[in-house]
Structure formats: C-alpha cells, structure tokens
Amino acid sequence: MSFFCLLWVPVFYFFWRGITAVNTSGWVWALIAGSIAALLQSFIGPVISPEGFGVSRWVSGFVDIVALPALVPLVVYLLFFYLRLVSGSPDFANFALLWIVPASIFRSLAGSYSPNDPIMLVLVPVLWTAIIVGVSFFITIIQNSALAGIILSSVAIIAVPLAAATSYWAFFSQSNLVGVLFLIVAIAPMFVSAITSFRGVGE
Fold it and tell me: CA 167, CA 165: separation in Å to the nearest integer?
C-alpha cells in the first residue's frame, strides 16, 4: 500500500496530462511549493488534534488530511495566474496534481503510518486526485456557463471536498457503507471530467 501511495499521484498526473493534451505551465513552481508545503506539514504536524470518531475527527480529516491539502494548490494557482507567474490557459488540475506529488512521496515513506493502512495510503491519495480534478472541472464550467451553471458548479465545488472528508471519516469510523456512498459522490466528477477530456482529445 505504501507503493500505491508512492506511485498513484505521479502516474495519475501523467495520465491526466495525456488526456488533457496540455503542457503544464508553472510546473517548477508547483513542485517547489508542494515540496515546501509537505515539509512544513511534516514538521508542524496536524493543526487539529482529533479525539475519537466525532466531529473533531471529521474536521481533522478535512483540514489536515483530505480536503485542505488538495484545495490549497488550487488557490495558490489562482493567485499565481492573476500575478502572471504562470502563463497560457488556466490549468488548475495539472498544477495541483504536481503540487501534491511531494506530499504523496512523504506519506508513502512516513514511519507514522502502517504499511498496510488502506485509509491513509490508498483512500487519501485517491481523494486528493478526486478533489483536484473535480473542483477544477467545475471551475472550468463556471468560466463557460450562464448563471444557472455558475450556481450549480459553485455548490458542487463545495460539495466535493465535503464528501471526500466525510468518506475518509466514515471509513475511519468503520462505517464502510457510508464511506462508499460519499466516495462515489467525491469521485464522480473526476470520472465525468475524464470522459469529457477523452472526447476532447479524440475530436
């Protein structure tokens, strides 16, 4: 499972770059900033100290483990784009996927996780990619939609990270059915985006 955690994000990045047919702008920035973020998180430790299986565990999952680590590079890319530190068409997903490569490497090598921990070493990296691709997908829709599409996509941008954090919390709490249901909600936009990108490349 450590091997999966080590390879999932880099392999997924090259897969995504292939089906989106773009050259990632700002890839050096992404790797440098992602490495700094991963180092800081490893030294500082969790912001939220969870207790048991309640609300604090969910908040910890959202802030320290699942959602915020995947959302931060999207926000940073938006800042870089407006500061013109990256050029070309907006490419949120590939930038953010490169950003979390160092985090996935650190996680796979961390001695604090059991080598057979499916939640931290398998589920969490998958949820990272689901949030990054899903939120990027809805950002693209907002850029090209009327008011109704903007409203629905904005709601979805909020819903995807919430569903991902809830899936993590449910699996951690051994509520596997709930975990699966929220996992489906979290990863569905990623699959839709992949299908759309495949069609775009094929045209």
Answer: 5
Query: CA-to-CA distance for 29 and 26, rounded, in angstroms?
Result: 5
DSSP, residue by residue, 89-133: S--HHHHHHHHTHHHHHHHHH-TTS-TT-HIIIIIHHHHHHHHHH
**Among the residues of the chain, which ranges form H helices?**
2-20, 27-44, 55-60, 67-82, 92-99, 101-109, 118, 124-143, 147-172, 176-202
Question: Over the stretch 148-185, which tens digit does the pLDDT of each residue have?
Answer: 888 999 999 999 999 999 999 999 999 999 999 999 99
Q: Among all chains, which residue has been given the structure tokens 């080598």?
A: 115
Residue 113's contacts (CB-CB under 8 Å, 6 or more residues apart) are 2, 107, 120, 121
Please give the model's pTM, rounded to 2 decimal places.
Answer: 0.92
